[in-house]
Amino acid sequence: MIQLDHVGKQYPSSSSWAVRYLNLDVEKGELLVLLGGSGSGKTTTLKMVNRLIEPTEGQILIDGHDTVSGDPVQLRRSIGYAFQGIGLFPHFTIAQNVGAVPSLLGWSQTEIQTRVQELLELVNLDPDVFAERKPSELSGGQQQRVGVARALAARPQVMLLDEPFGALDPLTRDALQQEYLTIHRSQGLTAILVTHDMTEALLLADRIAVMDQGTILQVGTPSELLRNPDHPNVEQLMQTPRRQADQLEALLRGGGNE
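Now predict its structure.
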């Protein structure tokens, strides 16, 4: 569904490459996580898919079509995009925020209203309660739900998610992660999710691509990375969730941290 072939990005002000020689395939219906620390190139890679950042080299295909062959604005309107900052229009109602892209695409008001109601219900926000509210009247978790609904509004096949749950408290974050997984599967989406959180990657991903300094170190399922890391940096990343799992197991057996 999404293919990156020898993709690279070098910014004009830099002599080094932010991303280089990136080869990656994301299958239809898959949730692939780009995992890495700050500066690893994961967000740059994500933004090259919808041309918020233009690649310096290589080719990106979505469903067999070269992304540079058409209008970048139309491309972005066809791809769902959710991110940590949410970016809701503060003077729009929730209904207007969710319906913004369908409106730009020329949908009728009846189609937009129907779609807004469907999506608010999908993300567990009662349309009768929330549709006419402003973003400032919602909690952080509710705003993030609206951000996901807006990303889904034009019925995209592809979703890009840039640390969308990162600023939330643990309980809200866990609830939204599980809700997104349900939506992902029910809607048949193909998604790339960026995170630096190893636990989030392991729990959400079908496959994980571990990035460092603009390159991919290893791609595999969560189980494969935990059991058979084939790069020292991947091994180091996997030590944290293993250690935490061991500590939790010890607590469940009646041990402690004393």
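The chain has a mean pLDDT of 91.
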